[in-house]
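Re: the request from the purification team.
They wanted to know what the chain is likely to look like in 3D before they choose a buffer screen. I agreed to run a prediction and write the result into the notebook, where they can find it.
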Amino acid sequence: MGGAGKTTLLHHLASWWQRTGLVQDVFYFGYDERAWNRQQIMHTIAKKLLDKYEMVTFQSLSLDAQQARLVQLLRSTRSLLILDNLESIIGAPLVLQHTLSAKEQEALRLLLASLASGQTLVLLGSRGAESWLARGSFAEHSYELAGLDQEAASQLTERILERHSASAYRSDPQLLTLMKLLDGFPLALEVVLANLAHQKPGEVLAALQTGDAGLEVGTSEKRTENILRCVDYSYRNLSPDAQQLLLCLAPFTSVIFRGALARYAEQLKQQPELAALPWEKWQEIIEETETWGLLNPDATVPAFLHIQPVLPYFLRHSLSTQQESGYRAAIEKAFYNHYTALSRELSALLNSKQPQERQAGTLVTGY
């Protein structure tokens, strides 16, 4: 998901590996800037690796011959090739402008596949799985970038507090709750905690939980600096049906038990204002939302889905701007009914005379 620090990490690796001598040259191509095709990538790399006389000969070759020449060079030297923001390549029309045709996608895949097992290292950054590119290139070699660990998140928070003259809130228990809610996402921490310059932690926390439009979420139009634009970027790449159904997740704040989602959907269907939504696509849409990084399975207990920390704020903010005044109330009522029923079941388990049932209730409530 946006805001996790993918691009920052890729740039850091490039700098560190070059500084320590692991790689010689670094080639970075960001698809948030333009739709880099095979020819443009090869031309850019060749200009750096070849002298002006070799470049003249290189440009006289066919594209396939250019690729063969360049691949030979890259496979024999320790360079680093980075392709970032790859989700733009197959992005939805009118949302992502830097797409490649199917023919160009295949040409790019073959170029990367030809570098496999050579000396040049290749790093790819994306919000999606990019399965179209995996065959012959990165295959199963993927890393899910989570938020910062507790120590790093604390260090970043300390710097943010100092920057905004808010160090007095360092021991405020509401700040700890706020940090837990933001789940170590660097952009979320940077943007949301900046509000402490003029608000108390409790006020920022309340605004985040209610979808208050008064919360500052970044003034830049760049999606790498504005947390709402960052979430909106992923949200609008979901299908229209998914966008509508996803609003029903607005009441959740941190994690969702995957096994209870079908029962929650049953409560939602019973609300007249929501009955017409395409509920037959509910499971498909949950999976689609996972693909875009808005929901992520827990590393140790995959039955629980972690919510991208600012997604609930985004959804509540979106609901508050809708004309249908009863839509939000219907979702909240279904959410209340769902957890009322779930609480009764857990209570029955915890008070059961059967040891196995009491243990099951303790495990669920203890998570």
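For the purification team: Residues 325-350 form the longest helix (26 residues).
Please add any questions underneath this entry.
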